[in-house]
Amino acid sequence: MITIKTPQEIDILRQGGQKLAKILDMVLARVEPGVKAEELDSYAEELILKAGGRPAFKGHEGFPGTLCVSVNEAIVHGVPHGELVLNQGDVVGIDIGMQYPSENGLYTDMARTVGVGKISKQAEKLIKVTEKSFFKALKVIRQGATVGDIGQAVQSYVESRGYSVVRSLSGHGVGYKVHEDPKIPNFGEKGSGEILQAGMVLAIEPMVCFGRYELETLDDGWTAVTKDRSLTAHYENTVLVTDKGAEILTKINFNQTNKKCFGKILGIDYGTKNIGLAISDLEQQQAFVYDTFTIDGKFWEKINALIDDEKIDSIVVGLPLGMKGEYTQKTEETVIFIETLENNVKILMETEELKIIIFKTNMPSIFQIVLMILVVFGFVAVILVIFKKTGKDTGQDDKLKQVHEEMEKIKEEMKGSLEKNLDFLQKQSAATAGMMQRQTTDTAKIVQEVTSKLEKLEATNKQVVGFTDQLQNLEKVLTSSKNRGSLGEASLELILSNILPPQAYEMQYRFENGETVDAVVKIKNKILPVDAKFSLDNYRRILSEVNEEKKKELEKEFKNDLKKRIDETVKVDTGGLIDYAFKEKKVIIVSPTTFAAYLQTVLQGLRALQIEESAKEIRKRVEELGRHYASFDEYMKKLGNNLGTVVNSYNTAYKELNKIDKDVVKITEGEKKIEPLVLDKPQGDL
Prior knowledge:
This protein is an alpha+beta fold. It has five domains: 242 residues, Alpha-Beta Complex (Creatine Amidinohydrolase), CATH 3.90.230; 88 residues, YqgF/RNase H-like domain (Nucleotidyltransferase, domain 5, 2-Layer Sandwich), CATH 3.30.420.140; 103 residues; 113 residues, no CATH class; 72 residues. Strands 8-7-9-14-15 form a five-stranded antiparallel sheet. A hairpin with a 6-residue loop joins strand 7 and strand 8. Helix 1 runs antiparallel to helix 2. The chain is flat and about 170 Å long. The protein starts with 6 loop residues before the first helix and ends in an 18-residue tail after the last helix. It is an enzyme of class 3 (hydrolase). Keywords: Aminopeptidase, Cytoplasm, Hydrolase, Membrane, Metal-binding, Nuclease, Protease, Ribosome biogenesis, Transmembrane, Transmembrane helix. This is Methionine aminopeptidase. GO terms for molecular function: initiator methionyl aminopeptidase activity; metal ion binding; metalloaminopeptidase activity; nuclease activity.
């Protein structure tokens, strides 16, 4: 049954939720590599009892702990036993509930997922998406919305990020019990399910999986894990449904007077050239211009540093109106900026479309202040003139006294207004001075960075000059054909030694006719000659030639040079080039890279030959084994026949013994009889 909480009960839930949030914050501060789950559990129970509450989970349907401590692939209901130790890089979800006050109190429930020490980028993103999916749900919660609206908000956001939501577990109502109606799945269709009513209190808890969403329960009967053992994250708060929206009850920063969460807001006004920034006060009643950031390589670093330094709780993004040189409507570019911002900051972000986000004040301008003073004094002067023209003395002193009192009152009001406005102007001046100082500091940093980069560039230029000199020296070395040949042979040997076993090749191989090649690859009973040849001169001339016709002539000369190298290898007349080399001369033209690929193929061929030789040897041995088995079978048959003859002789002997036994009986006239032992013949051939 769905329940509606009274205003008095909601106040109790607020108090309990705030206490629970502080307790969980203190527990999370103790999460570190090496800590045991049972230590966190004992600490949480101690804090709950001190706060005047009672652990909601301990003993609930037999659960043994105050906390649910779920690590990595465990999504919820992890048992906090002594053997569960948190390790560096783990992702741990901590779920906690409390009844407050401890006797006849109301229940609140919340959970967070955090990293243990340094965690992977994938884990960070999963935790961030899970948290943001909660706030996507929070946006749609209000009187008249449906349970399906919540599920659809969570599911659509999570799946758009490439993750999945758990289907077999859900959020729930909470308050009088740990679990109440309605169930709040993290998936669904918009407009479906129960209709939300003001006064409902819900536990909204997205449960997100890095892989598939199917779960199974471990042998402890409690811990729910993903079947594919993929990483998981869990984020939960107790939320009150109101006629205007939703209120998080399990939050530390809570203002009991206005019943709204407070904290600093960072206002970001998007522009195509610059990003305007403003920061509110803690009560979110007033904002001050902070600075203007340029979108560059350090933009996100500066934004996140600002969030940390100023302790920003949330961000509001808007589009500027009337800013010179900027767009005044939402464009594809602004959409990309908002999505990028959402993926690069770690706190709640709201987007206000088609309007700039500003914090209005009631401060009049200087012109308005001066005009107000002139109007007041003009009004007083008019009154004095009227009194003077009347010429009436009777009661004139009283009227003048009354006017004087009115003037004093106006004076005090103006004084207060001026002091207030001057105070505001001083704050604005201080903020402006701070902004200018920051800009000056940033400018100095930029100049310093530019100077540093110029120094590095100069050092790089020196290195480039050094490399140029080295290349020139290398070019001089390569001018000599003998040096080029030595270099080619060294490269060839390096490639062969890195790919083939030592026995599969030989350097500087000499044929029977006295001819020598740089290397040969040994393949079974054959050899594959390899020679390192290259026509460097014509190749360089091709590269430097601009005229296309001359370049074609040089290419022909280059091909002729290669043919000569082929002829030197096979010692026959020349013909075409590639076809001639491969089809007629059985020569393959390669570069060091393609040669390495060919050698890999040769290596596989050598291995295949080894396997073939091994197979032949195995076959030979099997044939010998067959011959030995045939001989063994023949001997076993002979042994069986001999054993049959022995058994027959044995049985005949016992028959004769039986006859002797009968003769003995007749002689002794007794009853004694000898029982011969009869052996069975062997069955079949042995």
